[in-house]
Each structure stands twice: as structure tokens, then as C-alpha cells.
Description:
By secondary structure, the protein is an all-alpha fold. The chain is built from 15 helices and no strands. The longest helix has about 35 residues, at about 50-85. It is globular, with a radius of gyration of 20 Å.
Amino acid sequence: MMTSAVNRRPGYAMLIVLIGIIGTAFVSLNLGASRLNPLEVIQTLVGLGTAKSNLVLFEFRLPRIVLAILIGAGLAVAGAILQAVSENDLAEPGIIGINAGAGFGVVLYLLVANGSATGTLSMLQAFTMPFAAIVGALLAATCTYVLASRGGLSPIRLILIGVAVNAAFNALLIFIQMRLDDYGITAATVWLSGSIWVSNWTFVWTTLPWLLVLIPLAVYQAKKLDVMRLGELTAVGLGVALQRERKLFLGIAVILTGVCVAVGGGIAFVGLIGPHLARRFVGVAHRKLIPMSMLIGALLVLLADTLGKNLMDAKEIPVGLLIALLGAPYFIYLLMRAR
Length: 339
């Protein structure tokens, strides 16, 4: 009964999640190695802060919060698109190998550009790095779908092939890591487990334009995703150019994933959890599902990042590990239901 009521008023559900994002962001601004009380945060945000509070908020915490929101939004929308295109509610960028492919592209790019996977990036490298991630993500997605399509594309076949492709690209990543020094190996491992490794405005501006273009495009084309969910025969019968639209939406999902992995590492399960929770609140129509998935994904990553930075005083827990603690059992539950 509650779900039906929410489905009739999706705006209320979106508003609640949006308030959750704003509240979590405000709490995150207060917490950290250099703690600021709420009054100091408010004063700094309105231009009345000290030099120290301005540095802490505007140069360190705020860009990281914005990146966490962008990463969560992008990965959740990518997951919603992949689930519609593949007609498989278990599809998710991290599970079917796209995250690993993007990570491979980034680490290889950094190794070639800097001779290290942890070197400081120039402005040009920061803006070109997402392209390396997109190429890696596209390669992994192509491998998964080509192999899974042979003999008929079934939901379980897609997942199994995706797991294999994911393992293959992770093996390539390990091979690259063997060329790094001890510090490089440790840093690359932490990043690949899902860590927002860069927290400055340069990387916000390298990420934001992609999402501002691709997410509205996905919402604009949302009715075609609704038709795809009805099955191949129905979609063709309704006049949808299925192969062309699949390539378009797969391209959107792959690019979103690549850009997000470039700045956030291999954060998995956001693209699984976000759309599944969104369906419970707003139903299956993608015109509502995509924005709701975006908000839930943003809240999930932001909350995980806030907890990861503050649960342990001396060390930071990668975002991907915290989300995996929730996502892995949820994925197993869905897999068992799918039989």
C-alpha cells in the first residue's frame, strides 16, 4: 500500500532523497581531521569564514562531496540503462566487467603518461584521462555482450560472461601493478577497490559536463527504454529501431561508467542498488526511474564516503568496500530469486 502511494506521488520520494543528500553533505562538511562546528560551516558558506575554514571547505571537502554525488548519480543511471537494454535486473557496470575495463584504461594511461599510476596529473592529463577510462569500459562492454550474445542472450549468461570478463581485466590490472613500486601498488589497489582519490575542482569540471549531457539525454529517450523492457519482439513491433537504440544507450552507460571510474575507482553495486530501490518508490517508467536512481546513487556514495572518512581516525575506508558490504549480499539475494 505504501509503495503504491509513493508511486502516485514520485515527487515526494525524490524530495525526501534530495533532503537526505543535502543533510548528508552538510554533516560531511562538519566532519574530518579538522573539525568545524555547524555555525562555522554556515559562516564559511556565506563568505564569512576564516582563511583556515575556507581552505578546508572549498579546497578539500566541498569538491569531494560534489564528486561523490556525481559518481553515485552516474553509476546508478548507467545501471538503470543496462538493466533496461539487457532486460536483466541483475546487470550492473561493476558486475559485468565495465568498471574493471575502465580501471584498466585509467591505470594504463597513468602508467604511460607518468611512468607511475600515482603521479600528479597536469590539467591536460586530468581532462583526457576520462577518455582512457571510456575506451577501457567500451572494450570490456563489447567483450561481455559479444560473448554473451553467442547462443542467445539470457540474463544468467550475461552475468556469468560479465564475471569472466571482469576477472580477465582484473588480471591485466594485476599485471600492470607488478610494474609499480610498493607505494604505487598500495595506492592503485586502494583506488581500484573504490576510493575517491582526487578531491579538487579540476576533476569536478572533468566529470560534470559528461553527466550534464548524458543523463538528460537518457531521460529524454526514456520511453524507448520502457519499450525495450517489454521484450525484443514487442519493441520491434512498436517501431523501435532496436539495434540502433541499444547501441545508443549502451554508449551512454559505458561513457557514464568510464567517467565515474576515472575519478572514483571501481565502485561496484551502485548501479544495482540504485535502480532497484528507485523502482520501489517510483515504479518502472524510466522518465521517473532514471532521476530517482540518480538521486539514490548520489546519496549512497555520499553516505559511504562520509562514513569511510570518519569511522576510523587514522585510516580511511574506501567507499567501494562499504558499498560492497551492502551490495554483495543484495546481489546474491537477487541472483537466488532469479534462479
